[in-house]
Amino acid sequence: MKTLDKKYILPFVLVTSLFLLWGLANNMTDTLLAAFKRIMDMSDAQTSLIQFAFYGSYFCFSLPIALLIRKKSYKSSIILGLLLYATGAILFYPAAKVASYTFYLIAIYIMAGGCSVLETTANPYILSMGSPETATRRLNIAQSFNPIGSILGILLSKYFILDDISLYSISGTYASLGGVLLFLLLVIFFAKMPIGKDNGKQDNVRATFRRLFANKLYRRGVIAQFFYVGAQIGVWSFTIRIIMQEFNILEAQASNIYLITIIGFCLSRFIYTWLMKWIRPSKLLMIGGILSALMSATVVFTAGTGWIMMTALILISVFMSLMFPTIYGIALGDINNGSHPEDSKIGASGLIMAILGGALLTPLQGFISDSTNIYYSYIVPTISFVVVACYAMNSLSHPSPKGEG
Question: On the CB side of 328, how many CA atoms lie within 13 Å of its CA?
Fold first, then answer.
């Protein structure tokens, strides 16, 4: 069965570009922890406030935007998301002028709000572009461009921020990104985009919440997503710091290893997507969860081993790469293809609000790092990946969508 019809190709390409753009923001933000630690002499817990602002914004914006989408269109929400993203990025420039960490956190909060709007909108939009039997595969294809954006974000950080760490190198890079976002906003504004599968049908919001809460696969999916995102952000936020400590090198050099982890994440997601033609996504998710937990535990207990620890750190990203879109697709699958597909818009917001895991678990990891050492802090992602593996095992008892392995 075809994954995508011709009529959806241009909209699919434009919406998929958004996956790249919020991936870029996510991983540029990850590198800011190391940069601000150097510039402002902060602890790991203090620098993790960057992730608290970023992913806390996701939590605050997701549900209001989902309610807006019910009344408006996917396209209007995308335009709003790009506008907020661009505004937050451009605000980095005045933040440098006043040299205020608080101002930077505000700019990051606004920028992340835009990313939240885009992510809340784009994921269910991609699911609606074609046959329900290939929806999870289609979402994995779109999500495969997210780590490409991550790679670009790391390269921008490496050459424009970490090679010459200063407030102005940070702000100039983000402000330039804001200009690119405004250009894409204009392109999408004039493009013809499909409405989606809602067909304008509206229902009582309370009834929607009741149906969502009654759906065990969805409810548990939100919990699994919370722990997965917390694990991913924690692993990536402290990768540069742990590599610096392990090999006694500076930020720019350590970012090379971080780049390798993201490349591995990107390539393995394409492999996972290919394997989904024959193997059920739930089964792949279970395997990925178990292996990611094992690699995280290896990091905890291999301090000072150099290449052994680093290899385990890289393999975490390889094994976890399918998790976000697969949890998303499994949790929303029945809803998007059932008798109330309009519930998927608010359902999507719940899965994006679960990104709060990055805001809460990353500071916890920072606190453990400050209190003990950075290696022991990886017990947080270890436990989180176990939760994901348990969700995958539970979902295996749920009937597989027709057309999937």
Answer: 34
Cα distances (Å, whole numbers) of residue 376 to 45, 186, 197, 226? 14, 47, 47, 21
Contact assessment for residue 84 and residue 114, using Cβ atoms and an 8 Å cutoff = yes
CB 110 within 8 A of CB 80: no
Which parts of 191-215 fold into alpha helices (H)? Answer: 205-214
The answer to whether 325 touches 147, Cβ cutoff 8 Å, is no
What pLDDT is recorded for position 184?
A: 92
The structure's pTM equals 0.78
Using an 8 Å Cβ cutoff, are 163 and 337 in contact? no
The residue type found at 384 is S
With beta carbons less than 8 A apart as the criterion, state whether 18 and 150 touch.
no
Alpha carbons 303 and 401: distance in angstroms, whole number: 43
Residue 318 tokens, joined = 């390889």
Question: Average pLDDT for residues 53-57, to the nearest whole number?
Answer: 90
Q: Which of 378, 374, 28 is nearest to 175 (CA)?
A: 28
What distance in Å separates the CA atoms of residue 226 and residue 300, rounded to the nearest whole number?
22
Is the sign of the CA dihedral 101, 79, 142, 215 positive or negative?
A: positive
pLDDT at position 89 over 90:
yes
